[in-house]
């Protein structure tokens, strides 16, 4: 059942219908994606699933503490929501963690998997996999100042340090010395030299068995799998052996899968959310954001894949892409684009 929205304190507030799932909270999450999972994307995805855990884009500690923008802003409707941080200094991360807790975030995640040149040059992200003690100190420092869950997102290896023993030692150290109880594991190693960020998401082979083995060796830790998960069958397969799954670009290309997952996995008899119900829920949000000066395209670009696989989906995407960025574009553009879809 789709949410209804009222306007309080000058922003939408969710009136969420209570739904009971047999699935553990957080069993499914949408990956933090730079340039994608901004607040508009997260609000849109929330219309499709009330259970999924949403992540911010990675925010560096410097941007959070010294940037001009309010990087922590989100709508209440986005809960449950996790803040992903990029950084390497325990005391600085602790300061950021306190800000996140004050703003009401549900989880803080430390990025130890980003392979970008920016992360490499700033000495955060994936390069920290070679510094397990520093990572443990970062997690511990945040635990000392907040009560929120502190998690890490990692790879299974880095460059030539890609043995199972290397991964085991990293998890053992960060969990025992840092107190981290949840690891989100992209089941590919990262190659910092020779591959682009995009190539690091696709070229190093996936090794799910390594993550499965990690769960056997650390049964008391919560392990979430990321990488190459695209279908309901994929999710079902991995949940038999792990505590959760994280999906990324597969959800962005076909977001309506979020409206189907809970029902199919839990046997929930509630009718599935329809694409039209999602559009209806987004309209007041879009009108509100337009009144604040937000450009329509900043919101609708996240909605391109809503009708994936349906007749007229390509025309829907094309019309939005060509018209939503125009000066003065409003919800009429969305309604017109909708006329091309057969659903």
TrEMBL record:
MF terms (GO), sorted A to Z: flavin adenine dinucleotide binding; FMN binding; tRNA binding; tRNA-dihydrouridine20 synthase activity; tRNA-dihydrouridine20a synthase activity
Catalytic residue positions: 114 (proton donor)
Highest taxon listed in the record's lineage: Bacteria
Cofactor(s) needed for function: FMN
Binding site for FMN: 32-34, 84, 153, 186, 226-228, 248-249
UniProt keyword annotation of Nuclease present: no
Domain DUS-like FMN-binding: 30-335
Task performed by this protein: Catalyzes the synthesis of 5,6-dihydrouridine (D), a modified base found in the D-loop of most tRNAs, via the reduction of the C5-C6 double bond in target uridines. Specifically modifies U20 and U20a in tRNAs.
This protein's name: tRNA-dihydrouridine(20/20a) synthase
């Amino acid at each position: 059942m789709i949410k209804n929205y009222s306007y309080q304190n000058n922003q939408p507030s969710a009136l969420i219908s209570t739904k009971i799932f047999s699935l553990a909270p957080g069993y499914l999450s949408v990956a933090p994606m730079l340039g994608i999972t901004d607040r508009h994307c997260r609000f849109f995805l929330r219309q499709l699933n009330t259970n999924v855990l949403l992540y911010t884009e990675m925010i560096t500690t410097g941007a959070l503490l010294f940037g001009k923008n309010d990087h922590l802003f989100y709508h209440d409707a986005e809960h449950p929501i996790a803040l992903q941080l990029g950084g390497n200094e325990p005391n600085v991360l602790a300061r950021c963690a306190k800000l996140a807790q004050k703003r009401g975030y549900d989880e803080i995640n430390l990025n130890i998997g980003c392979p970008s040149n920016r992360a490499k040059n700033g000495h955060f992200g994936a390069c920290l996999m070679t510094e397990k003690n520093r990572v443990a100190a970062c997690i511990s420092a945040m635990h000392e100042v907040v009560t929120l869950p502190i998690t890490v997102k990692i790879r299974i290896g880095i460059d030539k340090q890609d043995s199972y023993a290397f991964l085991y030692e990293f998890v053992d150290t960060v969990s025992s010395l840092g107190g981290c109880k949840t690891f989100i594991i992209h089941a590919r190693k990262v190659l910092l030299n020779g591959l682009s960020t995009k190539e690091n998401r696709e070229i190093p082979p996936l090794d799910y068995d390594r993550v499965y083995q990690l769960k056997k060796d650390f049964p008391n830790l919560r392990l979430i799998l990321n990488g190459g998960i695209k279908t309901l069958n994929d999710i079902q397969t991995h949940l038999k052996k792990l505590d959760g799954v994280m999906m990324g670009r597969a959800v962005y290309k076909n977001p309506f899968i979020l409206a189907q997952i809970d029902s199919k996995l839990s046997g929930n008899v509630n009718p599935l959310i329809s694409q039209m119900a999602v559009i209806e829920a987004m309209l007041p949000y879009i009108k509100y954001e337009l009144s604040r000066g937000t450009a329509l395209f900043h919101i609708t670009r996240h909605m391109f894949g809503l009708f994936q696989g349906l007749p007229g989906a390509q025309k829907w995407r094309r019309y939005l892409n060509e018209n939503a960025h125009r000066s003065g574009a409003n919800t009429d553009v969305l309604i017109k684009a909708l006329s091309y879809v057969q659903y």
